[in-house]
Amino acid sequence: MVPLGAEALSGESDNVLERYRRWRKGVWDERSHVERMEFQSLLIVRLMVWFFFLAWLVMPVAQLVSEPPGLPLLLGVLLLICAAAQCVLAWRLLPLAFGEYLGRGIVPARSWLLAGALMAGTLALDLGLEATGALDKEFTVFVALFAVIPYTAERCLTMPLRTFQQWSLAAAVVVTGAFALVGVRDMTLLGYAVGVYGGAMICLASIRCSAWSLGVMWQAERGREAQARLAVAEERLRFGRDLHDVMGRNLAVIALKSELAVQLARRGRPEAVEQMIEVQRIARESQREVQEVVRGYREASLGSELAGAQAVLTAAGIDCRVTGAEAAHELPTGAHAALGWVVREAATNVLRHGDATRCAITLRVVAGRAVLTVDNDGAGTDPALPGAEPLKGNRAPPPPPAPGGPGPAGRGGRPAPPGARLEAGPAGDGMFELVAEVPLGVPEPAPVSRTDSKSTSRTDSKSTSRTASKSTSRTTSKPASRTTTESAPRTNENEAAR
């Protein structure tokens, strides 16, 4: 039996782990790589201020506890309170200073006045301890060095570079002169000058350079976002041009034939029925062509998906290597599109659900099958791909859509090709592996028949020659049918005029 105390301890540890998981999901996992870098840099700077407070202030001043109550002990307590207030204010102002450097806002002026007053108070108390001789001279130098770090850590991000250097030099001269007035001489006085100016330069070299790196990373991130938006806009323009090329001429012919049918109907001519039948045929032909444009627009190209996945994963800080990309050009259309979707979904899962640092994509042809392998070191972090799950929907593709319906192509469905196989799961040593196999004999989608199903019912009191010419025009290729549909209205217009 497990002791009651052990059960309580186990439950408490589980609660701690659950709180840590929630914290990591809300603070870390849902952030982008640039946001993680900014959070980490800001946290390091914040903790650095508190580290200097503990190392350079608390430990030297702690020796005053053994002294009898008096002025030195009072100055030491006030020094700790003032320095701690500097750290608390720096914890609040450092994110605002980073935001001002990155162009997100401005730190209020009263905050700088308060930070400067606290720095001056800490230096004044250090000067008092130096005058009373309660602390060793080496300790007072470290106290003076700490006093300028919280303020300069914030101001180095908001001041111009030249102005900050001039201010640091002036602060070193003023502090050195103040300590010289209380009797500090020789190398100790030089230590104050070097400590104050050196502390400011340390903040400038470390914190400002870190903020500059973050600025460059944010610019690159915005550049990638703008490039993605530009690519989407270009794709929309291409789709619009294709749709205009397909529909523009057919709609013009439909409008012309409809107008001719109206005129013939007003005159009581039987040819109006023939023109409306032709309008119906052209409309269905236009619908079929639009479906072909949409289907081609949504098809995934394996070559472009491999290049895109490598570029996206590399930009996200993942070492991505692609092997066998040249074999993608030799695959049939069915295998090409199926593996393209696998690459796209695998790259998305690595980015969204994993924490990988390396990814290897390999494409090879083995025994009449195209084999795609995606390996990454984010095992156990991908909820979208449970281990060793076969490809869902291993079945023959559905029949082609009816001429009047949207079908799977219009809905964006992606059925699995027959004989395809997909396996995913941990591969050992912290690796996660996805293997997709598609036979090279994947049939291409069956084209929609161009022959009008109602051509047999289009018999009228016309002459045999006119019926034969119209049925011939409906069974020819697409360019010929368009040419016929354009010339027919002019002939009928001449007949109506006669």
Tags for this entry?
8% strand, 498 residues, alpha+beta, 13 helices, 5 strands, 5-stranded mixed sheet
The profile of the biggest β sheet is: 5 strands, mixed
Number of β-strand runs: 5
- Bin the strand percentage: 5-15%
- What is the helix/strand order? HHHHHHHHHEHEEHEEHH
Task: Estimate the helix proportion, in percent.
Answer: 55-70%
Number of helices in the DSSP assignment: 13
Mean pLDDT: 76
Characterization of the model:
With 498 residues, the chain is α+β, with helices and mostly antiparallel strands. It is built from 13 helices and five strands. It has helices at 4-29, 33-61, 71-101, 109-132, 137-155, 161-181, 186-266, 271-298, 302-315, 333-353, 407-411, 464-474, 478-497, and strands at residues 319-323, 358-366, 369-376, 421-428, 431-439. It has a five-stranded mixed β-sheet, with helices on one face. The longest helix is centred in the middle third of the chain and has 81 residues, at 186-266. The protein is elongated and about 120 Å long. The N and C termini lie far apart (108 Å). Mean pLDDT is 76; it is low at 381-413 and 445-498.
